[in-house]
Design a protein that fits this description.
Layout (H helix, E strand, L loop, with lengths): L12 H4 L2 H9 L12 H7 L7 H5 L1 H24 L4 E5 L7 H4 L5 E6 L1 H10 L7 E5 L7 H4 L11 E5 L8 H14 L5 E7 L28 H4 L6 E7 L5 H15 L4 E7 L1
Parallel strand pairs: 1-2, 1-4, 2-3, 4-5
Antiparallel strand pairs: 5-7, 6-7
Helix pairs in contact: 2-3, 2-5
Length: 275
């Protein structure tokens, strides 16, 4: 991938998927105006990248799902920071997203984090807009990431809003269990984690996905039931599950009614966990 300064950035397969939500948020509103998120940061960033947008825009289902996902994240984040206006938020696996443009309450703090290769790209083309927004490198596959990021911990600390979108399905089940357990062990009471899940039939199907497939990334974690999300630690509680079927009207509702008895989970969902 070439940036506006002429530098070439080579990303591993999973990291290449960061372009999918970037294009969806920048251009997807043209196809789905009711879900448009008006992502000014993504629109400006696309102008800096030498990128063929057509393969991404042709994947209309993924574009619609990402715009819906963005709405869910905005809703969950705003509700959290209204209740805890001076708390910390962190995006684990941030890619090139800029959620703080929507979640900045004026006194809360935000940390964007991802693998070193991604943060090097992000530093080239995305600068933090406010002093309360910071960035750091992180690898969720290595235990101890909560402390390495310097996130608040302990019973007396303020709760933390954790976002982990488009990340966990690329980790192994054992790695996901460790991530959820570390969140539960380290996060102060009242903290929340918002994440996305795909159904178990998605495992091994990434190569057939129109925009994920070309990157070579693989779907490795696809929970078979909601119980898998709270099983890693007794502190974990399932606050909410929202299915993507809600943005497909009656057709989505009918499909979900046929799907759930077979798979046990929605085809694609946004989940909020708390401790």
């Amino acid at each position: 991938m070439k940036t506006g300064d002429g530098r070439q950035h080579t990303l591993p397969p999973v990291c290449q998927t960061l372009l999918i939500p970037l294009v969806a948020r920048a251009r997807g509103g043209e196809a789905f105006p009711a879900l448009a998120c008006h992502d000014a940061a993504a629109e400006q960033l696309l102008d800096q990248l030498d990128l063929d947008l057509q393969p991404y825009l042709k994947d209309r289902i993924t574009t619609q799902n990402i715009l819906w996902r963005t709405r869910v994240i905005q809703s969950a984040g705003r509700a959290f920071f209204q209740a805890h206006p001076d708390s910390q938020g962190v995006n684990l696996g941030c890619g090139l997203s800029q959620h703080f443009q929507w979640l900045d309450q004026g006194c809360n703090r935000w940390l964007d984090s991802d693998l070193p290769e991604v943060m090097a790209l992000r530093d080239t083309c995305l600068a933090a807009d406010v002093p309360r927004q910071h960035h750091a490198e992180v690898d969720l596959r290595t235990p101890g990431w909560w402390q390495r990021l310097g996130l608040p911990s302990g019973a007396d600390a303020k709760p933390v809003f954790v976002l982990c979108e488009g990340v966990l399905m690329y980790l192994t089940p054992e790695q996901v269990e460790a991530v959820l357990a570390e969140f539960a062990e380290q996060a102060p009471p009242g903290s929340q984690m918002v994440l996305d899940t795909i159904s178990r039939v998605g495992r091994g199907m990434a190569r057939a996905h129109p925009t994920v497939g070309p990157t070579g990334a693989q779907f490795l974690w696809c929970p078979a039931s909601a119980d898998e999300l709270t099983r890693p630690h007794p502190r974990l509680r399932l606050l909410q599950t929202r299915s993507v079927s809600e943005c497909y009207g009656w057709l989505g509702a009918v499909t979900e009614a046929c799907w759930m008895p077979v798979t046990g989970t929605p085809m694609y969902a946004m989940v909020t966990l708390s401790v």
